[in-house]
Amino acid sequence: MVVGAPHVAILAIPYMGHMIPLSEFAKLLQVRYGFDVTFITVDNSFDVLSFTASLPGTIASVLLPQPSLHDLPPQSKIDTIISHTMARSVPSLREVIVNLKATTNLVALVVDLYGVDAFDISEELGLKKYLIFPSAATSLCFALHLAELDRTIEGEYQDHPEPIHVPGCVPFHGRDLMDPAQDRKDDSYSHLLYHSARYKEAHGIIVNSSIALEPRPIKEINSNTKFPNVYPIGPLIKNGNDVEGEDVTGCLKWLGKQPPNSVLYVSFGSGGNLSPEQLSELAGGLEMSGKRFIWVIRSPVITKDGVLMEVKTGKEEEEHLKEFMERINGVGMVVRSWVPQISILKHEATGGFLTHCGWNSSIEGMVHGVPMIAWPQYAEQKMNSVVLSEEIKVAIRMKVDDENGGLVKRQEISKVIKSLMEGEEGKKIEERIKSIQQEVTRQLDGGSSNLALDFIAKKWIAN
């Protein structure tokens, strides 16, 4: 047996929405409890390489080689691509874990939600199996109940005439369930069933949420003897010191000249991809609302053979955007690159957040007390938008015109922005989210989130 500081290996899928919270978990283990940590992911893009290079020097990082995916059908969905990427990386991962087991005091292998095939390595090497779930506890609760839903509900969930009830969760319409559940004949749904079933093998599940945010699904999971114990240690987000950097875009300087609570921050995350028609309607809605705003526009991203690739926008879209920027000069600001999101959300001039409802962005908005407009795009974001608007009640959900291909018109966009920034509904949401902000802070500072992390860390130290 190797003597030394307890060592934890963390396996993350190679996407920012997963690597960020898992790296924050790694930092907490190291700074607060003195663990050694190895952060492992798959080398599938320059962003992954840059991210792992930015980790503190005290956290070791390992990039597994991108496995070949040439045999997958060209139309494979992202969930299928990720599932095969992680499953085919197990042999490379095993070499890393075997080496860590032989040379360090390895006490745990913690895997991301697509990494459950690594449970076989834990079993082989006598390690406890732990899952870290970087999304909402509601999504986890749905996944743990999925086998029962699959058995009892016929046809597609989106065609189910009644709301789908999962114990401990707000009711969902079938069309609001996560993307892999939208087509039960697709491989991505089979992968969802497989992963969800293996979650139950875990000795414990660490979730990026808090009793302050999602008490009902957390209570449901922990009271069900068929499920592993869940440890809500969140929210796991970057702090301002991690992302402040240089204000290269000038957005913080611009914010400093605006009145308090007057600016709407608009961002669809690292994978946001609006159609040219929707971009035009959003621009029109922002302009029509008359409200100040910062709008982050990123180039669309596609996945080819498991590798992320940026797609440049066309000349016509660029020309329309240029004209728009000229018209709104002084009232709004359009940014085409990375921005310090935490610093923007913390700024006193920021009064609203139009978000794609990625869980990281959602909890950042709640931690910093910013009322939200929920406009989900993909993955489990529709579920998150229901949680934010109907369960936690800190967001207004944008209404999508299903009869018009899901396009949201500028009139609706303007109406919702005004409702959030100046209406009675916006005032109620502001009161609610300020209360949530205080409770989340309390849970992190010695409350239930802190205690859950403390329990896990001490359990691993004892092993």
From TrEMBL:
Keywords annotated in UniProt: Glycosyltransferase, Transferase
Taxonomic lineage of the native organism: Eukaryota, Viridiplantae, Streptophyta, Embryophyta, Tracheophyta
Signal peptide from the UniProt entry: none
Family designation: Belongs to the UDP-glycosyltransferase family.
InterPro entries the UniProt entry points to: UDP_glucos_trans, UDP_glycos_trans_CS
Identification of the protein by name: Glycosyltransferase
EC nos: 2.4.1.-
Pfam families associated with the record: UDPGT (PF00201)
UniProt GO MF annotations: UDP-glucosyltransferase activity
Highest taxon, organism lineage: Eukaryota
